[in-house]
Amino acid sequence: MEQDYRKHLKVPIHEDRVPLQELLPLRQPLRILIDPCDLCNFRCHFCFQSKMDFHGGSMSEQTFARILDQLRDFEEPINVVHLFGLGEPLLNKKVPDYVRLLKESKVARETAITTNGSLLAEDISRRLVEAGLDRLSVSLNGIDDVSFQKNVGTHVDFEQVYKQIQYFYKIRGACHLHVKINGESFDEAQRAQFVSLFEGWTDSINIDHIVDVWPGLEITGGGGQMYDSEVFDWKASADGRRIVCPQMFYELLIHCDGSVSPCCVDYGYQMENLGNVYESNIQEIWNGSRLKGLRVQELRGENSGYTFCRKCTYPSCGSTVEITSCRDKLLKKYEV
Q: How many CA atoms lie less than 13 Å away from 321 in the CB half-sphere?
């Protein structure tokens, strides 16, 4: 198994996905992340939550209802609404209700959640499936009690988590279940063991990589990509300008207090953001002059006007999309 476990690995990307540069500029986001809770019950060594003095919260029903109402303003359903952001979404007990409301309102073609799996109790699993969840990704940070303690800084009963994931798989219906680990946290034998444990209990499985995506938090010592190069392979800008960050061209992250960020890794939103759903409209933020200006700066290779972006390395190590090679062509479209 140690020799051939990699043949089972698969990144859950839609095979019919069109290159982003062919779709830009977009009249609405392809993906919107809604963060139900930016608190976390883990303190993973590779996450800013274990290093930074971060004060999070949980999204209220009032805030979610406001977001849902604003999503109706877009002409078409959002391709993916992902209930995930900076914390563990299942700490918010209302998440199954939020999934149901998203499905009933038809504002999203696909609803997704990413969780660490520790809170995936049977009743929560049933409620998520009954609500119509389309995709559940489990970021598993241990394959036994010992590795969990080492990686997340707290005791986790692996057998319980394992049984919870198996239960979800059994009742998942049309929901796609994806399970992954961070490869740097495990040796080769453990990686093979992980695949052996979950092969047959998930629709797709992968081993990601730890990378330094948060400014001010260096974990790996530099370098690396989140995904294997044979899956995502591109070159940095050949002209010496900064790599274009694609995130602000196709997604938004709405935090638990209603603040809006241009990127999925922005933990600095409490100091600077694009606006708040209580003061602005999501559609207005997406098509507004500030975000348009940030996109033009990115395409020109200039230093970003958004504080968090200036030191962020996500474009070169974490993104699954490359548009740097098309920057000049795209710039003509965005400067209009």
A: 20
Please tell me the distance from the alpha carbon of residue 36 to that of residue 44, in angstroms, as a whole number: 19
Q: Give the residue among 201, 132, 120, 203 at the shortest CA–CA distance from 166.
A: 201
pTM of the model: 0.91
pLDDT tens digit sequence for 207-259: 887 766 666 666 555 555 554 544 444 445 556 677 899 999 999 999 999 99
Contacts of 299 (CB under 8 A, 6+ apart): 244, 327, 328, 330, 331, 334
Contact criterion met (CB below 8 Å) for 178 and 137: yes
Torsional class of 102: left (φ above 0), alpha (ψ -120 to 50), beta (otherwise): alpha
Structure token digits, residue 233: 């392979």
* Angle of helix 122-131 versus helix 95-105 axis, rounded to 10: 10
Quote the tokens at residue 190: 């453990």
